Amino acid sequence: MTEKKIIVDYYFDYCCPWTYLSFKRLIQTTTRTASTINWKPVLISDIKQEIGPKIDSLTQYPSEINYGNKDLQDWANYCGLKIIPRNDDSQKISMKALCGALFALKANKIADYSGLVFDAYFAELKDIANNDILIEIATKLELDLKGFQSAIDSIKSGEQLKKTATELVERGGFGSPTMFVGDDMYFGNDRMPLVEFSIGRASGKILVLPGQHGT
């Protein structure tokens, strides 16, 4: 009997620090469970455009902002990652890098490419909207530089990102990182244990996870 292979749809944008944290953990989760990642690069600003503007926005207190920064650093320490807070205003800073992800995906180097982009942005404070930075990453991975350069500047690549944003919104999603195991949606880095549990349930396996209740 052939074992059922579970696929996790992973919608991601490089400019989101919580997505960065989820990236490594999802790879570990899918490795442990012998499941597969279906990589879906998506621009957060395209998602927001699809959903439409908020009716109102709640103002955060300084103490909430401070705690949010601490919470992010706590998760980074837990995941063994280095994160330097970013203050970029543009939510489209990752567009070229995501277009490059589409090219890396075809070259079967998406995981390595994503790791280098995340590190460049959050650990080295590099500008991932800069072609030279992205070409440097592509060179390390021995990607076809002519094809990669064309991809990151391609209108067609941008249109593909928009299509993925539409697809995510139609499935009920609203941001990055979003993961689907079948039709079950999970949003956020902290939902990774639930993703792993869902993979086990879908595959018919019994996975005992650290801290899981009822076991």
List keywords for this structure.
alpha+beta, disordered C terminus, 53% helix, 215 residues, four-stranded mixed β-sheet, globular, 9% strand, Glutaredoxin, single chain
Globular, elongated, flat, extended or rod-shaped: what is the shape? globular
**Structural class, from secondary structure content?**
alpha+beta
Strand order of the largest sheet: 2-1-3-4
Q: CATH topology, which one?
A: Glutaredoxin
Separation of termini? Answer: 28 Å
Q: How much of the residues is beta strand, in percent?
A: 5-15%
Helix and strand element order: EHEHHHHHHHEEH
Fourth CATH level, the homologous superfamily: Glutaredoxin
Nearest-angstrom radius of gyration?
Answer: 18 Å
Q: Do you know the CATH architecture?
A: 3-Layer(aba) Sandwich
Number of helices: 9
Number of strands: 4
Domain tally: 1
Mean pLDDT score: 87
- Provide the low-confidence segments as ranges: 211-215
Largest sheet: 4 strands, mixed
CATH class reads: Alpha Beta
| Fraction of residues in H or I helices | 40-55%
Give a description of the structure.
This protein has about 220 residues and is of the alpha+beta class. It has a single domain (about 5-205), classed as Glutaredoxin, CATH 3.40.30. The chain is built from nine helices and four strands; from the N terminus they run βαβαααααααββα. The protein has helices at about 15-30, 45-50, 60-80, 95-105, 110-125, 130-140, 145-150, 155-170, 190-205; strands at about 5-10, 35-40, 180, 185. It has a four-stranded mixed β-sheet. Helix 1 (about 15-30) packs parallel to helix 3, helix 4 crosses helix 7 and helix 6 (about 130-140) packs antiparallel against helix 7 (about 145-150). The longest helix has 18 residues, at about 60-80. The radius of gyration is 18 Å and the shape is globular.
